[in-house]
Amino acid sequence: MKSFTKYIVVFLTIIMASCKDQYLDLVPTDVLTNANFFQTESDAQSALIGVYAQLQPEATFGNLIDAANLDWTMSGDLYEQDQNTPRVQLEMLSLPADNTYTTQLYAGLYQGISRANSVIEKVDQMENLAPQVKASIIAQAKFLRAIYYYKLVNYFGGVSLVTTELNASSKLDIPRSSAAEVWMQVESDLNDAAAVLPTAWTNSSDVGRATKGAALGFLVKAYLWQQKWAEAVATSEQIINLGQYDLLPDFRSVFLKTNENNKEILFSTQYSSVNNGSEGGGLDVRSAPRGAPSTYIGRGANSNFVPQTSWINAFERDENGKIKDQRYWGVIIGPGEHHQEMTNFVMPETFPNPYTKTGYIVTKYWQEASIVGSDVNAPILRYSEVLLNYAEALNEVDRSTDAMEQVNIVRNRAGLDPKPLDLTKDEVLDAVFYERRMEFIWEPAGAFSDLNRRGRFIDFIEANRVDYDKIQVETKPWLQERPILLPIPQGAWDVNKSLIQNPGYPPFQ
Amino acid sequence: MVLLCLTKVPIKAQMLATTAGYQSGIGVQADVVIQGRVTSGNGEPLPGVTVVVKGTANGATTGADGVYALRLPQASGILVFSFIGFITQEVPLTGQTAIDVILEEDTKALEEVVVIGYGTKQKRDLTGAISSVSANDLQKVPASSFTSAIEGKVPGVHITQTSGAPGGASSVRIRGVGTTGGNQPLYVIDGVPMGGESMSVPGSSYGVDPLSIINPNDIESIEVLKDAASAAIYGSRGANGVILVTTKRGKEGGAVVNFNASVGFAQLWRKPEFLNAEEFATMANELYTNSGLTPNPEWANPASFGEGTNMVDLVFRSAPLQNYDVSVAGGTKNLKARLSLGYNDQVGTMIETYYKRYTGRATVDLKAGDKFSFGGSLAFASTESKGQNSDAMQGGIFNLAQQFFPTLSPDSAFFGDGVYYTKDGDNPILRAQTIDNKLYNTRVYGNIFGEYEIVPALKFRTGLGIDANYNRTYAWQGMVQRGFYIHPQATLSENFDNRFNWLIENTLSYSKTFGGHSIGAVIGQTSQKFKNNYISSTGNGFLNEALRVINASDISLRSTSGSGSNSTLASYFGRIDYTLNDKYLISASLRRDGSSNFGPNNKWGYFPAVSAGWRISEEGFMSSLNNVISDMKIRGSWGRVGNDAIPAFGYLSTIRSGTASDNYALGEDQSIVIGSTMVRPGNPDLKWETTEQVDIGVDASFLNSRLYLTADYYKKSTIGMLISLPVSLEAGFQNAPTVNGGRVENRGLELLLGYRNIVNGFDFDISGNVATLTNEVTSLGVGQPIVGPNLGGSSMTMTYTKLGQPIGYFRGYIVDGVYQTDDEVNKTLQPNAIAGDFKYRDVNGDGALTDADKVKLGKPWPDFTYGLNLDFSYKGFDLNLMLQGVAGNQIFRANKITNYQMKYFNGNGIINGVKDILNHWTPGSGINDQPGLKYTDANGNYSNASSFFVEDGDYLRVRNLVLGYTISPEIIRKATANTFKNLRVYVTAQNLFTFTRYSGFDPEIGSANPMSSGIDTGIYPQPRTFSGGVNINF
Prior knowledge:
The complex is a heterodimer. Chain A is mainly alpha-helical. Chain A has helices at residues 2-18, 21-24, 41-53, 65-74, 85-91, 100-125, 131-156, 179-196, 212-225, 229-241, 274-277, 283-287, 294-297, 309-313, 326-331, 383-396, 400-413, 425-439, 448-453, 457-464, 468-471, 490-495; strands at residues 32-33, 78-80, 265-269, 305-307, 332-333, 361-362, 378-382. Chain A is globular. Chain B has a 22-stranded antiparallel barrel. A 5-stranded mixed beta sheet of chain B has the order 10-17-18-13-14. In chain B, strands 3-2-5-6 form a 4-stranded antiparallel beta sheet, with no helix packed on it. In chain B, helix 8 (397-403) packs antiparallel against helix 9 (428-434). At the A-B interface, helix 1, strand 1, helix 3, helix 5 and helix 6 of A face strand 24, strand 25, strand 27, strand 28 and strand 29 of B.
């Protein structure tokens, strides 16, 4: 019996030893938690970087889904040469609610908003931050939240407005707000940001962050959408008066990876090829000619989108029929033409071939054979857009001559003759839109979104798209709406039944 | 004589004695014939009784008149008489040559001992639903993993191979699937709960079976704990059932050496038929013409191509396999040991794939005095697998082969005009040759225990276990530009993953019988800790591709990553069993589990169970039926078990730093800045899933135990199913929080019925089993249906989980044939449809085709699973035939998107398709089941989930056929001068025949993810194997 007791004691001792509470109270070793994050300035800065990081996906500010799949393919100036079904749905404006790209766009933008909301809310609660650091972080996060919302309201109209950090127990079936409410939020965030953000970042390692000019630039775009012309004029002048921006003499050099964040760039999504391209972009792969030798295209190419000949034909030519516009020579190559940097690459003369179906390739982003993610930034807002936005607003406040002066600045850089200053109001608007079209191919501006904002989209495609009849605009009720809105994605409604579909589309059920 | 004394001398002496006996035995042969008659208690002759000399293989069986005759070298030893349903009798040989025996009927035939959680029990005393598979059964299926040996044997256990790759993992589901999350059972090897994490060869999405680490020949028995009462002692890890594996140990007696060798080959049992070159070119031309595009001038003259290249034939082959293992076992009263080594080598049926495994195991049992005993085991397994991506619809070798143009030569690259040649095409043979992807796994695991008998009937046992699991993956790809396919620089990625867990276990057990009472009890405590870490390194840009190590890569293009995690589990448990008069059985258990994965609000969980049994056959009123009913027990059980397969620290909001999607580039030099983002919002109330199960069963045997039966009805409810909350996109979470959301019910009947007998030396055992399953989601706490994942590259979602339906059922439009003319098209329903497109049914008749018109098209879960097992042996021959089948399930044949469309589904160009395309719709053809060939699929024939893709998945498979012959021990001893004691040769075939109406390549579609089960994306098909082998005992 003695040994019995002895073993019971041993047994109990082992039990006690192994079940102290801390044995079960582990903390994760591979991730941080809300319990130990947002403690230091470096936590706050790093969370802010996370908000910037959401600019990089193709679906958000990578100039791919918005610029190529939607804007430029819908207006017909880029040709989706793969005939990939979800892209054809966009190209043919059939716009089903379950389109994979519009769903990605919607989800990606809200992910950016969620990241921004966390930073705005959590950093504000931190007590150990210097006031100017706190203000700067929150201002940048607000800028980013504003541009994520800008893109949502631009494509989908009034969307669900989330401005706080949500958690698992939050009410998540958030109904849509009106477009006006979303615009109010965008304006408020941009005004807050512009008040705090610097004109330029003094420390060279901060280049690429949001600036006052970027915030004001988006504010102008928000005013244009709402037809707040006077505010647009005033804010445009504010940007110009910053003295920070100018057009570069050579159009191509605006985009070159060796010349990034130059005087013409108000904001661009930053990509880097260092560290094996883990922060690199994919625009080069999308635009470079598929099947070309690896010497020119590195890790491969898709030529998913190529310029339509109708767009090429819209360029002004000299008496010999040669394109005068430097914007063509800067970022496009056609049959028999050399690549601007890799001069040994010559576009074949005969078509079709796998390189391109139309004979043309955009070289804005395809600048070298990159074997890892590309270094080339995605331009989001350029000074030439500021000028054209200014021109548009001036025209609406009946300062057409001033407007044409702005247009001519842009034309001058493109190597074109100035247009007369005494055009009618409508002619000025046409002139602004012509420059947008030739200036911004494969950038977020200049195509569907701008045309749609002014109700010019259907007229434009009727005049310019060769496949206009195939689209059968009259059979598509959503194309009769002004503005035309993309359908709220089916995937969003699947989990949030409080959403109501945009007019013209079959209702959710 | 020598043999008899062997059992009493220590091993060393024994070996010497054997050698001596062997030498002196040469030429000495003075045979004695012993004969007699065996009868039953009522004087009837018993045919088929086995008569052997104890400890030898020397024996005979009785004939129809019950008479036997036996020729022996010496009239000494012990004769053993055994027969099913009768008590075995031993008669010492003392010089007599005529021995008649009367065998007594065994009224307690089921003395079999079954392993249960933290103990053992006699089978007749079981009150839960436990199925056992013995070593004998396992031996019949020469498979590399024991899971394939259970397949079809245990009712209610549904096993599907997830891949035909050698060493590929199986999905094992016990009594249905109760959750959209982790649904694989807990494996306990010799008392140590093992992690069953599936490892993958880089680039392939199929797992390598982590449990193939055990050589099936090292297994003594496998017990499947199916009901909650049996599994509840494993608490928060028992909800998906528990599989206990007990390995072989040394037994008292002479050293027995067992050697097994088998060789064979594997090949595809069915190959899909693809269009030949002429047919392909003809179809392609039609496709382009239909879409108003110019056909490819290269294909202008289809007839000139003839058969062309059959790429599917070229990427598969007849693949050799071989297996060897050797074991030595033996021991004395105080020291017993067993050692084994095994080698398994299988070449895959797909080119550039193989699997090699080395296993070893040592067990020892030591008795130190009357009260102390110790034991332990140590095992290792080292595997090397080479794999190829095979099952995505894009890019895998199998898929590239299906899609390759038969008009091209086998060595050509894939390149041409983008309207014709898809940019995603490549030559699969060249692709496979330039990729070298391997997984090396080394696992060392073992346990040690000590047991002390404090007072008689009361034992204390303490044990320690470890499991060290090292995975190294190696992924090499050389620099390639081959047509469209570019790999611009050579890359090598190596990943080293290290998992370790330890276990401490202490139990106090008590067992006593007095009068009619029998009490057994166990209480105990256990703690387990899991550690996990990995480091991986990638190198790019190799100077010389012959040197394939990271050090040979461009130093500026190297990157590393690594991380680690750990978790702990602490538990207390107890069980009490009470039996009254061998008739009334009751058992109750309780486990308390605490886990570091659980949040402070739910740190500890309690898992109780009770069960009871009534051996009705022992009742007096049943005595008149004793001739018919040998044994009958009615049992019932209730219990609660948990499933802790929740994400670690799911109760906390976790913040991730430093991955590509967190970081950003900033600064003039665009250097990378580390970012942090919230990965998943925490749910402080997160807890384990609770599964409550009721089981009612009968175990019975009739006619002297010749006819046997086990039947069970169960109802299993998973409460608080762990689900990733379908979070509205507007919330913007990267990963959805896990919540205890739903409720799922599985219920079914299981029946096992068998008959065994020995008639005129013809020994047979025939058994069949069938299980029904009804799976239903009875609540979705979050309210919204859960949409299954969509297929890589396609927007099609195929499964849906919603109230009142099975988990992960198939959902989509009903196809009502094909529009024969443009006029027929209902433009309001299908504005983009033209003649030749599918006609989708407007189910609710509201004049619009909407989400509401998507209906249930099928489900991946069979209504029935069944197996039939036939064992025969006669005069040294043995035959085993095992059939296995499922019925009532459907398969979503997603690879119809690639096999039928011809147009590449996710981009430009076209691809080859199956021969069935020849039956596609053409104007005036009247064909209603296949759309017309088109380049642009505006109607979404191939992007809408529809009944077109869903087929019945019933199949019946001749899983296993073995024919063996054991050479008469006398002959073999004579021929080998007493070296061999036993020699059996056999031939076997696996997956010999499959009967199915399914039109895909293989109806066995496994996936561990219940939300994507039953979806055929063109996985590596199951092979058919033939092999032959030999089993020798020394």
